[in-house]
Amino acid sequence: MKKGTAMDALLAEIERREGDLVSLTQELIRIPTLNPPGLHYRDICDLVGARMKAQGWDVRLIRAEGAIGDSESHPRWNVVCRLEGRGGPGDCVHFNGHHDVVTVGDGWTRDPFGGELAGGRVYGRGACDMKGGIATSIVAAEAFAALTPGFRGAIEISATADEESGGFGGVAYLAEKGFFDPDRVQHVIIPEPLNKDRICLGHRGVWWAEIETKGHIAHGSMPFLGDCAVRHMGAVLDEMARTLFPVLAGRRTDMPVVPEGARSSTMNLNSIHGGEPVQEADYTGLPSACVPDRCILTIDRRFLIEEDIAEVKAEVVAMMERIRAVRPDFRYEIRDLFEVLPTMTAQDAPVVRTVQDAVHRVLGKSAEFVVSPGTYDQKHIDRIGRLRNCIAYGPGILDLAHQPDEWIGVRDMVQSGQVMALALHDLLG
């Protein structure tokens, strides 16, 4: 079959499978894989695995034993499905999607786990982030394999755990076990919801840390005998507002980060707590009269590819030292929680060029290159797997992720599926 005819047949085949695509998306949404704590992970892996095994794919269920978050009550299950082509050796294209979803939250007008189809949209928690993307990659791979059984190399589909909480029980674990070794997998597409006409090349860096200010406990009626850690933290917040935040806002990156505000360095004050612990909801007594001897601020610092992680940390230390120089009895501690370096795949990488051509053929327009403001599982494929030929491309609107009444457009899934199928045709056909 000629190339143009084969590609046209693929486009038509994805259109024909629209109903199956919608049904699979609904099935995935109806499994409430809430993280935390990590519910029904095995159930969703079994669903994906059974579907692929019935079509001749090799299926492996993998528990991330010992990983962060894994426990007997909430095991971290992943599924990896692989299909070898009949055309002999060639590259492997891997589609990776996370199956966990965030908490539901308030404000829903539809059943968050109903998978309702209305007005050309499928609604539910995880619809766009990213069960619609998983379903799209599965249907695209199935359609390509059905029409082109003699393809070279292999296709893999994975549904993995815990991306919403760092990915350590999912992609990080698989990468440590060699699943993303460049000798085994050559191209990775992560169908995150970044709009069907965008190719996401990577993400900013992140440093999570705790800043603790220390004081001295005393009776609340005699605070002069103690040292209030909360007041010390107030000085930290004031110094951040006066000196640190303006500096961060003034830094700009050449990375094509979206939205526009994320092209600067940012820092979110994630949480703060000082004094005695919050009591249980049914506690009706008053707090005890104590001067707080500790206050903890959790920071979420997002940094640019032009910034060095050591300098990012040193900047906060320097700020704390300025405070200590002018504030009597000021004591503090900074504890690292989590860090990821920025990453950005080159625009001329094979998977980028291939998906770019497919977007143009399906949508009739050039794909926009973007970088994500937050991290996703590309960080582990890059850092642990040492595989740089990786992008995020998938259906869905990023702004809908984690929102009430989250949805994904059926037409977006169909067209993204066509892009994925054409990419397989160019890389393996």
UniProtKB/TrEMBL annotation:
Keyword Metal-binding set for record: yes
Peptidase M20 dimerisation domain mapped to chain residues: 202-322
Reactions catalysed: N-succinyl-(2S,6S)-2,6-diaminopimelate + H2O = (2S,6S)-2,6-diaminopimelate + succinate
EC number of the protein: 3.5.1.18
Name of the coding gene: dapE_2
Entry cofactors: Co(2+); Zn(2+)
Main EC class the enzyme belongs to: hydrolase
InterPro entries in the record: ArgE/DapE (IPR010182), ArgE/DapE_CS (IPR001261), Bact_exopeptidase_dim_dom (IPR036264), Peptidase_M20 (IPR002933), Peptidase_M20_dimer (IPR011650), Peptidase_M20A (IPR050072)
Name of the protein this chain belongs to: Probable succinyl-diaminopimelate desuccinylase
GO molecular function: metal ion binding; succinyl-diaminopimelate desuccinylase activity
Pathway assigned to this chain's UniProt record: Amino-acid biosynthesis; L-lysine biosynthesis via DAP pathway; LL-2,6-diaminopimelate from (S)-tetrahydrodipicolinate (succinylase route): step 3/3
UniProt cross-references to Pfam families, sorted A to Z: M20_dimer, Peptidase_M20
Lineage top rank: taxon: Bacteria
Keyword set includes Cell inner membrane: no
PROSITE patterns referenced in this protein's UniProt entry, alphabetically: ARGE_DAPE_CPG2_2 (PS00759)
UniProt entry keywords in alphabetical sequence: Cobalt, Hydrolase, Metal-binding, Zinc
Family affiliation: Belongs to the peptidase M20A family.
Taxonomic classification: Bacteria, Pseudomonadati, Pseudomonadota, Alphaproteobacteria, Rhodobacterales
